[in-house]
Design goal:
single chain, about 675 residues, alpha+beta, Rossmann fold, Jelly Rolls, 4 domains, five-stranded mixed sheet, four-stranded antiparallel sheet, 10 helices, about 30% strand, disordered C terminus
Length: about 675
Amino acid sequence: MIALKKHIILKILFILCSVVGYGQVTNSVLANGNWYKFATDTTGIFKIDKSFLQQLGISTNNLNPKKIHIYGNGGQLLPEFNGDFRYDDLQENAIFIVGEEDNSFDSNDYILFYAKGPHSWEVNPAQGTVNHMQNIYSDKSYYFMTINEDDGKRIQSSSPVIGSASTQITTFNDYVFYEKETINLFAAGKKWLGEDFSVDNELSLEIPFPNIVITEPVNIKVRAVAVSELTSSMQVKVNSQDLFNLNFSASTSSGNLASERTQSANQLISSSTIEFNLNYNNGGNPSARAYLDYIEVSGKKELTANDFQFSFRSFEAANTAGIVEYQIQNSQNIFQIWDVTDPINATNINNESTSGPFSFKANSGVLQEYIVVHQDDYYTPEILSNSKIKNQNVHAIKDINYLLITTDEFESQAQRIADYHIENSGLTAKVVNLDEIYNEFSSGSRDITGIRDFIKHVYELNSTDDDQLKYVCFFGDASYDYKDRIIGNNNIVPVYLATDSYSLAESYVTDDFFGMLEESEGTMSRAHTMEIATGRIPVSSQQQAKDVVDKILRDYNVDSFGDWRNSITLLADDIDVLSDQPIQLGVETIADDIKAIKPIFNINKIYADAYVQQNSSGGERYPDVKEAITTAIESGTLVFDYFGHGGEDGFASERFFDIPQVKGLNNENTLPLFITITLSLIHI
């Protein structure tokens, strides 16, 4: 921690004193034309009719359906690793329109298109394993429609496979999951949990799994979490049969605050519905709590069409060389079958059978994804309140040194900062709207990786080294709740959260993620470095935004200049136990390094142990330390650094710097940079 501390301090002081792209699209498709945005909530075939178009805001008078285009990249999570593939800008999707031959969109005409939902699967057919990928940012995917003079992209027929099939595919692999996200136990990290077992220790639920192959075992995976001072367990039953127990270790006040367990097992299932019964045993601790995270079910189904659309794929085909033949029984109500392996370019599969089941041949050796288009079962997209969006083109932004990323609410205040640096700092600066970034770089979803991809795009799109991006400011507060589930949430400009939610020491919050821009970075490895400086102005109201910008601009005023800017104050907590010794030793090391590297700075040390501790009705206190802190801030110090214990109400158990003290400070023209490493940061 001391080494990290030194790195932070020296990096700040340095700042105070002193690749391969994604294709580099430089103009977004949203730059021109009329565009309409709508949402989908699952993966499958969606239907858009004349009424939907009118609700969307599109005039259907003299509308030629051949000119309709739908764009979107699906709503699944973007890959955090920079080198992984992702689309740069929105892609046009192949769609199918019933009745477009007459160049008129009539009452009986409609559009069919395949949409990828927000949640996805990580599939390994060679090992026969699947893992669902819950989208932590959004429960919706977004698509965009436009009408122009060009013919739109349409679903074409697949080329027939020539040759004899060596294997007939009459079953397919399917997988479903159940997960609710209602609570984040410690307001930290990315993990949200569902049903609470603290009041009622039993939960029953059903998961449909129709057309199951009764001779093949189904794999069932369950993850749950417990918070208890004692060991506890959760019994999992399937169709009244014991499946397994999840055994939780005791959680402690230090280290992990909760115990997470995941277990899977194979089970033969003979019914079309899987009944789950989960029973939590608190181990004799009435204050214990347990929560269900998710349930996954994966297994084989008969390749039989029913009264609904469904997707199918075959691990057997993926693991087989040569040609296979798919045979779909009960196919009389099948409208079409699409190959959606490439969801952007879906193709129509021709029925090669003149009688009997719907059949077609395919080259095997890779996992192919198909969907049965049922003539009476389609999903309906969601109309958004502001469906028509204005033209935008953040892909065209280049030669910018300083980006400020914010929302409509704070754009004017962010622009004040940009204008100052344009006029006084020799920087090219630009305020960019967050929603516009989402539209172009994450297909409308609030995926923060899209923000990082945009920053990377600007960083790489520069004419000269002097024009390269150097600074990014996130103008707006953030929250651990990406999906606005908590009351009074302030997730204005999202921040990166660590995956860990059960260790407060490991569950960090950082904007560093947005500055790691090399192709081999993006996963928050300790070996990764930042190519640009990132910072945040965590405001949550317009008045607060104005007040903060006023302070920032006042700090550039000549009245705020003075020799106090050569002063650095180092504050260390007292040593109560032997393990606290690194606090003062670390601060001493930092002081020595500053003197050696930047002797221009004057070091002011405030060590609590150098002052007299006094007893009071509120506990032990250091009144002289409080006075020394106030004096240092009001007289002026460029950097104020604290190393020690703390919380939301103040520094240390002795409260030698607290909120009332902060509110009473008179340092309008001597604003310091605060750096703290504590158990929890004080809100200043």
